[in-house]
Amino acid sequence: MKHTLYTIPDPEKQLLSFKAITNIIKLIRDLIANRFEGYSSIKIQSEPGNGNSYLLHAIANSLKKKGLSIAFLNFKGNDQFSDLTPYHLNQLMNCHYVFMDNVELLMANEKDPNKLIEFIDDLERKDITLIYACHSSEIQVTVKAMNEVFSSPSLIINLPPISDQERIKWAESYLEQIVINRIQKNLIGEKLSNAEFLKKLDYHIKKQEIILGTNYEEIREQYIELKKQELLLLKNKLAILELEPLKLSAISKQEYELAAKLRGQERELLAANDKMLDELTRLKISPKPSKKAMEVYVYFSSLVNFITNKDDSLQMVPHYIEKELLTLQKKKSDPDYNSLGKHTEELDNEISRWESLLIQYV
């Protein structure tokens, strides 16, 4: 049996984070609550990228949490039903639910569908619920084969794309309105799958975090990686310098074989040096944190050092932040400050950063 076939549902895919139109979410929750009672087989279908696989994994995880036994088959590449061993077939027959993902790939590859038909009949006889996922648009031959094998699902769940209204509502919970107004056209449209929408939304969320200076983890990871590359580059340069006197000595002593070997090592080090320089350039420019982001990182790093280096500092940190916030808020409410007509956006951002730090600390 191929190792990718008999598997477990992805634990990251949970019903709580699944996005679909409201009535489908309600239907799924009701079905899970009633343990799909009265249904022998359930077909979940959608266009690619609209969540049929995600929902299949999420349902499997939800039923597992209820203490019900499941088996999960994930068909990939050239997998066939005949790849399952008698041992695993026996395991499948001792579960409450059998899940099959990417059924369209199975039907495109399956050479002997009769065994699969017998298996599905056996599941029904033993009152084991079959839940499977597939794409709704497939070539006619695959559709015909699928209809012959999975002839009469007792329930079909179609997953259309999330509506434009729900997409905008979802985006509003993550992005500022000014950003949504600018990118709204990129987040809507029937041709945009749910997966593509999420990818675009995630990009703009990260971009906003960089602008607002709230991407602490990304900045920290980038900083560490940057320093690692700088150290590797320095070590490589030192190795090149150490080779130079050895190479000159070998030439002066007419040890040409040794000199050639050293030159080969030098060429390898120089090639590695070029690769490191390219990587260093990439890290310095992508993604490049904004000035505000770096300021927040400096504040946060200072607080970490403050906590680490002082025994009584744990209780002092929030007081320190609150004191700074109080100073800034007094400055903002000062009539003399406002009467000068200064732009307060920078001050608002400063207050926001300190408030974020207080939340981070707590």
Features of the shown structure:
flat; alpha/beta; 64% helix; 8% strand; 15 helices; Rossmann fold; 6 strands
Topology of helices and strands:
Blueprint: E1 6-7, H1 22-33, E2 41-46, H2 52-65, E3 70-74, H3 86-92, E4 97-101, H4 103-109, H5 113-125, E5 129-135, H6 140-149, E6 155-159, H7 164-172, H8 177-187, H9 194-212, H10 216-252, H11 256-285, H12 291-309, H13 313-333, H14 335-339, H15 345-361
Parallel strand pairs: 2-5, 2-6, 3-4, 4-5
Antiparallel strand pairs: 1-3
What report would you give on this structure?
Residues 285-290 and 310-314 have low confidence and may be disordered. The radius of gyration is 30 Å and the shape is flat. Helix 4 packs across helix 6, helix 10 packs antiparallel against helix 11 and helix 13 packs antiparallel against helix 15. The protein is built from 15 helices and six strands. The protein has four domains: 6-159, Rossmann fold, CATH 3.40.50.300; 164-212, no CATH class; 216-285; 291-361. Helix 3 (86-92) links the parallel strand 3 (70-74) and strand 4 (97-101). Strands 1-3-4-5-2-6 form a six-stranded mixed sheet, with helices on both faces. The chain has 362 residues and is an alpha/beta fold.
